[in-house]
Structures are given as C-alpha cells and as structure tokens.
Write a structure and sequence with these properties.
This protein is α+β, with helices and mostly antiparallel strands. It is built from 14 helices and 29 strands. The strands form seven sheets. Strands 14, 15, 16, 18 and 19 form a five-stranded antiparallel sheet that branches. The protein has a five-stranded antiparallel sheet with strand order 22-21-20-24-23, covered by helices on one side. A five-stranded parallel sheet has the order 26-25-27-28-29, with helices on both faces. The longest helix has 24 residues.
C-alpha cells in the first residue's frame, strides 16, 4: 500500500478483495490501520494476506483488489487452479480398471475406503501418485460401499469422492460372502460386514435329518438388524438345534447354528410352543415339518402319537425351557430318544444281531475292514478354563468328528457326567477307548498345566477349588499312573493351542508322548490320531488338516477376545 502524505493521526483505509469464478463471486472487505510514525512518503509499510476463499478445481479465478479511498496501485490478475483428475471405471476381464487421466506433471492422492454407516469411513488403501495412472482392482475386493477419493497435492485442495460399485451385482455377492455371524459371550452376537446393508434376522429350529429350518416368530421377531452392532439373544438356555437365518429382500443369505460346536450335533428333540392367552389360558403345540401340531391331537403325526407322554414330561420337569416371553408364551424342548428306543426296540435288536454276525464274519475274513468302517476312537480330555476355551474345544471336537474318527468329549455328555460322577465317567471312557485301540488326547491349557503342577507337587487339590463338572481333575487319577509307569506311549497324545500355551510349558511327565501345538502342527496331529490303521495320501491328509484348522480358528480368535479367557503362558525358565 502506498502512502501519499503523512499526518499525526493513524492512516486508515479499507481494502476490497474480489474473487470471481464461475458460477460464484465473493467479496471481502478488510480494514487496515497504519500508525502515523511508520508512514513515510513513497514507501511501502507492510502487506495484508488473505488466504481463506474457496474455488472449484480446474476453475479460472479473477482476483481484483483496491483500497478505499483509492490509491495509485490495484491488484488485478487471473489464476488457473489445478484441474480435477478425470476418473473412468472400466472392466478388465473379471477385474476392474481405474483410469485416472491426469497430466504427467500433476501429483495427486488416491484413497480407497469403505463408506460405512452414519458417515464413518474405513481406509483400505492410500497412495500419492503422479498422473496418468491405470490401477486394477480385483473383483473379489469389490463391495457396494467401496469408494474412491481423489485430490491434487495442493494446499487446502477440495477432495472429490466416487462410489461407483453401489449397484454392482459382484459387489453385493462379495458383501454377503464376507458377512459373518459372530457369537459373543453372555449370549451376545453381532453380524459383521464391511458395509451397512438391509437384513432381517430370525431364529429358527433345525430338526435332525435335513429339511428346512423353521422360523420362530418369538422370541426374535423378524426385523431389520444393524451391522457390526452387538445384540443379545433373548434366550434362557442355548440348544444346538437353534439356528439363525439372515435374509435380504426375502432371500436367505446366511444360516448358521452357532451353538452346534459347543453343544454337539443336532439332537432328536421336539420343540413345544406354548401360547398364553387372557385369564391364564395356555395352549401347546409341537413344531413339526408340516407346521405346529396342537397337543393333545388325533392327527397321525409323530408328535400327536406321543402327545400325552410329551405333556407328562413337560409337567414333570423333564423338558428344558429355552425362552419365556411372559404374556407372549414360552418355548420348551423335550427329548424323544427314549420313545424312539422303546418303539423300535425289537427292530434295533434284530439289526444289532445281524450287524454282530456280519461283523464277526468280516473280522474273521479280513481284519482290516473294521478300521476304515468305524474309524478310530478318540477321547478328548480338557480343563474347564472358561466359556471361550470350551467353545474352542467344542469346535475341535466337532471338526475331528467329521473325519473318520469317533470323538468323545465331556461337553457332549454332561448328563452322563452328572449321573456317574467325573471319576467314573473318565475311567469308563478311557478303558473303552484303549480297549478299542483308540487314543486319549490330553488338551492342555494354562489352567490344566497349573492343576498338574499342583497335583505333582502336593497331591490332589482341594475339590472346592474346581468346577464339580470339570472332568480333568478326575482324569489325573486315571492317566497319571500310565505316564509315571511308562505305559503312555502309543496310547496318549498331548496337544495345546497356539498362542495360549507353548509346548514346553506342558508338565515334564506328560512330554513322554508327542506334544502338538494346534493348529500349526495339525497335519502331524491328525497323522498321529489315525495311527497305523489308516494310511492316507499326503494331499488328502493336508486337505483334512486345513479343514480342521479352518473350523478351529474362529473359535480360537473368539477365545482370545472373550472376557475371562485364559491368558497365554510362557514356557519354563
């Protein structure tokens, strides 16, 4: 700013800034005051800086500035802003090609991110590039909320976002492929997916032997669910036949039975639906494939024929209540095995006699027929180290049971364990397993290792310190003499989980047999379980090891995230 003359009073002036860029125009008025002592004729005494205005990328901006009252000089210039990178999305076979048309000298940033619910974003990939660029995205990485953000590497650049895959069928298929139902402690759960989507969730009852899973309106009404939000199952007790269905636009996308791993395979139980009306009126029906059969009823169905017995079981407390909805009703599950056994006792006896004769004949003719037909018996013994660890044990037992192995674990025999007592149950299972040429697996955890050290140093621990349903303390009475007297090799195997207990933390007497860390040593573990009875090709064994590891890993991840889960233990110093 030029000063024309000097006065005692401060020199005051107003500076007008005008920014003109189609289709917007903006003006700013600045008031400037200069002390008289600094004012010297013909000299510049300072400058004013204004850097807070917006303009679109690629626009031509005219900047005009002058003072009021007007002095000799004015600012009048035109500024060309950097152009916005031009983005084109095209197909590259099954993949997608991003073509960014930018001049060779221009540098810009490219960000790929997931535009999730409520405006939140999760970055996936970011890079500073120099144009032009061709970037290929795999079709497996596409999801509807995958967006692209691009901006020039200039101060205060305006960022431009594109979300070109919102209606891409491949992106929607990938989204449901990656969606996962996670079971959390305390009957909590959540549906995990990269993007927010419309989905309905309902509980259903899966009867053994196939057939559709029958939706249960109560206890979970069919309603929309929020992705990645922790929800709670309104149940009093879990059951392996209870499954979860997730639908989108009336199309079933996910069906999982989250308690099958921890509670064992599907049970031959019948689900009773209780409906409560006014004046304490109650009605019961049995859920069957064709619908809900009222009890008692004269129709010719299995539940109707057993109607009186089922009602008697319900009133005598032999059925288990899964849900209580006060005025809405309740759900009960009653076992049917005893009725089936009673009805078909003679048929089963004849079949067993025939099978016994055939077995003896085949055994005499060819001794090796038994091994591939039945599979080797495996008894899995573990310590009760919390719900997360028991889910991991259940997942391992379920995965091994899908191989040619016959698995026994206390998680699936709680009624027998309570009736016989832990010591009698472990002794009977161990004797039967070893008589059949099977193997006993000792699955060590931090709690099991501590219990063994306590046992070896000072004798048996006080019973009050352990869960009365925990079979592991009782198993020490049965298996420890075999290890101390050298009878364990060939009959026992020791295992532990990666990251939870290192192999060298297993007490020394139990390291007389092979010790495997799972799932990292799963192929060797399965080879040891099969023994000499089954000789499998290497590729088949590797595939089975991968299947078991894949089934075990989510339960292990959940074990590490669960509150109260056993922490990792280091080896002996």
């Amino acid at each position: 700013m030029e000063l024309g003359e000097s006065e005692n009073a401060p020199l005051q002036a107003q500076v007008v800034l005008s920014f003109q860029s189609y289709p917007t125009t903006r003006c700013v008025l600045l008031e400037v005051q200069v002390p008289a002592a600094l004012a010297q004729p013909g000299q510049s005494v300072g400058s004013a800086v204004f850097d807070c205005f917006e303009a679109a990328l690629g626009a031509e901006v005219r900047i005009w500035s002058y003072t009021q009252p007007r002095f000799q000089k004015e600012l009048n210039l035109t500024q060309q802003l950097p152009a916005l990178p031009w983005l084109n999305v095209s197909a590259d076979g099954d993949d997608v090609r991003l073509v960014l048309d930018v001049s060779e000298e221009q540098r810009f940033s490219l960000l790929l991110y997931w535009n999730q619910a409520q405006g939140a974003s999760k970055p996936r990939w970011h890079s500073n590039l120099t144009g032009p660029q061709n970037i290929t995205l795999s079709h497996t990485d596409l999801v509807p909320c995958l967006c692209i953000q691009v901006w020039p590497l200039e101060p205060d650049s305006v960022r431009t976002s594109f979300c070109p895959f919102r209606k891409d069928p491949r992106a929607h298929r990938n989204l449901w492929r990656t969606a996962r139902l996670s079971l959390l402690p305390l009957r909590n759960w959540k549906l995990e997916a990269p993007c927010s989507l419309q989905a309905e969730v309902v509980l259903c009852w899966q009867a053994p032997g196939g057939g559709p899973c029958q939706p249960l309106a109560p206890p979970m009404l069919r309603e929309n669910v929020t992705m990645n939000k922790i929800l709670k199952f309104p149940l009093l007790k879990e059951h392996p036949n209870l499954c979860v269905q997730v639908s989108n636009w009336e199309k079933l996308q996910i069906q999982e039975c989250p308690w099958a791993d921890s509670l064992g395979p599907l049970k031959n139980d019948v689900l009773l639906v209780e409906t409560r009306g006014p004046q304490d009126n109650r009605s019961l029906c049995a859920l069957e494939p064709h619908g809900c059969t009222p009890l008692p009823s004269r129709v010719s169905t299995r539940a109707a024929r057993l109607g009186e017995q089922l009602l008697q079981d319900l009133h005598s407390g032999q059925c288990v209540q899964l849900w209580d909805g006060d005025d809405l009703g309740a759900l009960w599950t009653c076992p049917l095995d005893k009725y089936i056994h009673r009805r078909w006792a003679l048929v089963w006896l004849a079949c067993l006699l025939l099978a016994a004769v055939l077995f003896v004949f085949l055994f005499l003719k060819k001794d090796r027929v038994k091994a591939p037909t039945r599979g080797r018996a495996v008894l899995l013994l573990h310590s009760a180290d919390g719900a997360g660890f028991e889910r991991a044990v259940g997942a391992l037992a379920s995965a091994l049971g899908r191989l040619p192995l016959r698995v026994a674990v206390d998680l699936w025999s709680r009624q027998e364990l309570s009736a016989q007592g832990p010591l009698a149950w472990v002794h009977g299972q161990r004797r039967q397993t070893l008589q059949e040429g099977g193997v006993v697996v000792l699955l060590f955890s931090p709690g099991a290792a501590a219990l063994c050290r306590e046992w070896l140093q000072g004798g048996a621990a006080a019973p009050g310190n352990h869960d009365p349903h925990d079979a592991f303390p009782a198993s020490l009475n049965c298996v420890l003499p075999d290890f101390l007297q050298g009878r364990a090799p060939g009959c026992y195997v020791v295992a532990c989980f990666d990251g939870l207990l290192p192999p060298d933390a297993v007490p020394a007497p139990f390291r007389a047999v092979p010790v495997y860390s799972l799932p990292s040593q799963m192929p060797d573990f399965l080879r040891c379980l099969q023994g000499r009875r089954a000789s499998r090709p290497g590729r088949l064994l590797a595939d089975r090891a991968e299947q078991v590891s894949r089934a075990l890993q989510p339960a292990l991840d959940s074990c590490f995230l669960s509150p109260g889960a056993p922490g990792p233990v280091t080896g002996p110093e």
